[in-house]
Amino acid sequence: MDLLIDMMDANRSVRETSFEALKGLWTENLLMPLIEVAYLHPDPVFTAEIVHFLQKNSGRYFGNDFNKWHQWIWNRNIKNIEGYPEFKARLYARLDDRFSRYFEGRRNSKIRMDEIRWGGVIQDGIPPLRNPQMLAAQEATYLADDDVVFGIAVNGDVRAYPKRILAWHELFTDQVGGIAVAGVYCTLCGTVILYKTRVNGQLHELGTSGFLYRSNKLMYDQATQSLWSTMRGQPVVGPLVDQGITMEILSVVTTTWGQWRVRHPDTKVLSLNTDHVRDYREGIAYKDYFSDDELMFSTPYKDRRLRNKQEVLALRFLEAPELQLAISTRFLLKNTLYQDKLGKVSFVVLTDQSGANRVYGSKEVVFKSYDGQYTLKDEQGNTWNLTEDLLKSDDGKALARLPYHRSFWFGWHAAFPETKLIK
Fold first, then answer.
1. Do 150 and 276 share a domain, yes or no?
2. DSSP string for 315-339
3. C-alpha distances in angstroms, 33 versus 104, 210, 338?
4. Would you call 34 helix, strand, or coil by DSSP?
5. Distance, CA of 358 to CA of 351 (rounded, Å)
6. FRET pair for 339, CA 20 to 30 Å: which of 55, 85, 304, 385?
7. Which residues pair with 270 in a beta bridge?
8. Residue among 85, 71, 68, 5 nearest 40 (CA)
């Protein structure tokens, strides 16, 4: 391990001597550490030397395409070197000394340590919004009707978070409807998830770790520096692993500002006054990334049933967490009233005129029609009215909202490769 770290030394003689010594100890389990050293090394000439050595000894000629190197290694049964977490701690501490706490002495892990990649920023280098300033709808003159917003409603507290702002920050924490929440936006995998951050009486203060797992944002908590999965809402590396901690998911509606405001004229909306200087115009953040189907960071999988960045409605319920379902949003645009079952949970997906999806438990009710806005009819002729929390029938019955979120197909499949897909 010392030899690997010494390869990062500013003194050329030290790093060359260390590299020569390491060559004499070559085994396959040095592949990933050497890739990580090569990726981070500031000297392109030395990086080329490492890559040449790896190509010669692996028979793979990927050059400086580190996405290909990672994907190939992840699909091989290669054990990590002894002390690999400590290696990562020392290596990445060179970028941000806080990174060492993620890995040092961390034996508790629910994910492969070598699948944790640096995303290019320091801890909270993409700055979260803490208790951000909100405006009344009529004050949000900066928004156009067709701007994309993420809408939430918690205990009657209705809010909208424009994509054009949230994409620059990827996380907000706040009290909404008297509930401590975190809205997590993984721009790379196209996912916005709203979590309750108090679990079993303990409030978890979350931030952006700077690292990724399968191109999916990893969060951290301030108290223990454990790493948390965005998709699962659980700690996956560190002392909180296997403590029975799973954050409850609340619903997020991806829609347009115009449609959200019509439904909720009293909504609050995120202010441009974030205390940060960014270009918050519509479509600017991650413009190039969103414009094509290429990935910035690879995953172990290639699944071409859908394009990488085709959006899917992602469903996973507490009653059957081992089951997952992805439904293409294109399919749902053509099937605006869709009923199905996942495990023992029967549900209905309603897609309105803006393309926004909402999911409710349906129990034994079979719906016959939906007007695309507020009203449904069941096969018994009963009328049901849609609210953010419930479907309410004219004979007094109610069906509760179920948790869901959207994701790019590749991101959901990378997290849950066994997922069922409807397209």
1. yes
2. E--TTSTT--EEEEHHHHHH-SEEE
3. 15, 19, 48
4. helix
5. 7
6. 304
7. 134
8. 5
Q: Compute the distance between CA of residue 370 and CA of residue 384 in angstroms, rounded to an integer.
A: 9
325 and 267 in a single domain? The answer is: no
Identify the domain containing residue 233 by its residue range. 129-287
Q: Are residues 182 and 276 in the same domain?
A: yes
Each residue's pLDDT tens digit in the chain (423 positions)?
A: 899 999 999 999 999 999 999 999 999 999 999 999 999 999 999 999 999 999 999 999 999 999 999 999 999 988 889 899 999 999 999 999 999 999 988 778 999 999 999 999 999 999 999 999 999 999 999 999 999 999 999 999 999 999 999 999 999 999 999 999 999 999 999 999 999 999 999 999 999 999 999 999 999 999 999 999 999 999 999 999 999 999 999 999 999 999 999 999 999 999 999 999 999 999 999 999 999 999 999 999 989 999 999 999 999 998 888 899 999 999 999 999 999 999 999 999 999 988 999 999 999 999 999 999 999 999 999 999 999 999 999 999 999 999 999 999 999 999 999 999 999
Q: Extract the tokens encoding 257.
A: 């500002």
- Reduce the DSSP state of residue 299 to 3 states and report it: coil
Domain for residue 364, yes or no? Answer: yes
Q: How far apart are CA 81 and CA 1, in angstroms?
A: 8
Give the separation between CA 98 and CA 253, rounded to whole angstroms: 35
| Residue 50 token pair | 């490492």
Helix (H, G, I), strand (E, B) or coil at 114: helix
> In this structure, are 356 and 228 located in the same domain?
no
Q: What is the residue whose two structure tokens read 């977490």?
A: 85
Please give the structure tokens belonging to residue 149: 């917003």
Number of domain units in the chain: 3
H or E element that contains 213: strand 206-213
| Cα separation, 159 vs 130, whole angstroms | 15
Q: Token digits for 139?
A: 């004050």
